[in-house]
Amino acid sequence: FEAKRLRNEVSLYDPELEADRLSHLSLLSELETAITQGQLRQFVQPKLSLVGGEPVVAGVEALVRWQHPERGWLPPSEFVPFAESTGRIRQITQWMLEQAVDTLARWRAEDRFPDGVPPISVNISTLDVQDGLLPARIEALLRRANVPAELLQLELTETGLMASTQDPIHVMHSLRRLGVRLAIDDFGTGQSSLAYLQRLPVHELKIDRSFVDGVDQDAKREELLGSIIMLGHGLGLQVSAEGVENTAELAVLKRLGCDLVQGYLLAKPMDIERFEAWSRPLAVLETA
Ligand code: C2E
Ligand code: MG
Ligand code: MG
Ligand code: MG
């Protein structure tokens, strides 16, 4: 008992732990400021369709950035895991959804895309799929902006789904009934069984970029990627690949029949204004 008490006292006054606690608190308050004071930015990265002749923009993925007043632009890896562990991710998700729906409403009003407004995908965390009110909140956002549900897609990671303490399938069905599109993100990195995968009411399988990396240099990797694409098609899903960085990788994906591609080769994440300028030449080409 004595030894235990001693250890507790030691840990209570551990200066390192105290420093950790303080930095945790200050990051939390900075993040709250970021959310409420407008320091978050929504970037988008195009997804291109390989089905048909010339690649066309089939959608964009929304990616959060934090424009920190002192530390500059912060990528999600610097704050999304923290936001997830402190529950603040739900406010970030809500903000990302609002931005996406606002942008979709504006694109529709401006009649900017002659072949139709590209859907926007928003990344959703484990906490969000555990939130039974998510479908109602999304429905309200779409209705208020008069945006068709099929223009909004949600990306849920395979690991995020597996980590959910509640079965996410019920919420996913509600979302699907709304007409929202669903994708499994980072596919191949989680532990989901084929039986589980078959139960998921999703439209798209997004293959993790680790399967794309170097696929042009190794026949085994190409076979593995080909099997994943066939699996997705076998389940009746649209198949996309992320992290396409060079033309050799792109050629393999085309040959293997992957439907959609995303990666630095085609376009990096950019702010909405830059995306609008970037997509204009494509639209001009298509109508020419
Ligand atoms: P993700 O959803 O799998 O997004 C793809 C990530 O890969 C993005 O990183 C993107 O910039 C990066 N990427 C795209 N093309 C390439 C490429 O050719 N090569 C390489 N090496 N990387 C590429 P980013 O923006 O840093 O986001 C990282 C992760 O953070 C995302 O992975 C997603 O899981 C999470 N995330 C981003 N925004 C949000 C958000 O609003 N909410 C939630 N919950 N998570 C988010
Ligand atoms: Mg994603
Ligand atoms: Mg991904
Ligand atoms: Mg990824």
Q: Would you write up a description of this structure?
A:
With 288 residues, this protein is of the alpha/beta class. Helices cover 49% and strands 19% of the residues. Strands 1-2-4-5-6-7-8-9 form an 8-stranded mixed barrel, surrounded by 4 helices. Helix 4 runs parallel beside helix 6 and helix 6 packs parallel to helix 8. The relative contact order is 0.11. Bound molecules: ligand C2E and magnesium ion (MG) (3 copies). One magnesium ion (MG) binds next to strand 6. One magnesium ion binds next to loops.
Largest sheet, in brief, is: 8 strands, mixed, barrel
- Sequence stretches where pLDDT stays below 50 over 5 or more residues: none
Category from helices, strands and their pairing: alpha/beta
Which value, in Å, is the CA radius of gyration? Answer: 21 Å
Separation of the first and last Cα atoms:
82 Å
The hetero molecules present are:
ligand C2E, magnesium ion
The average pLDDT score comes to 91
The tally of helices reads 12
Return the string of H and E elements.
Answer: HHEEEHHEHHEHHEHEHEHEEH
Q: Within the largest sheet, what's the order of strands?
A: 1-2-4-5-6-7-8-9
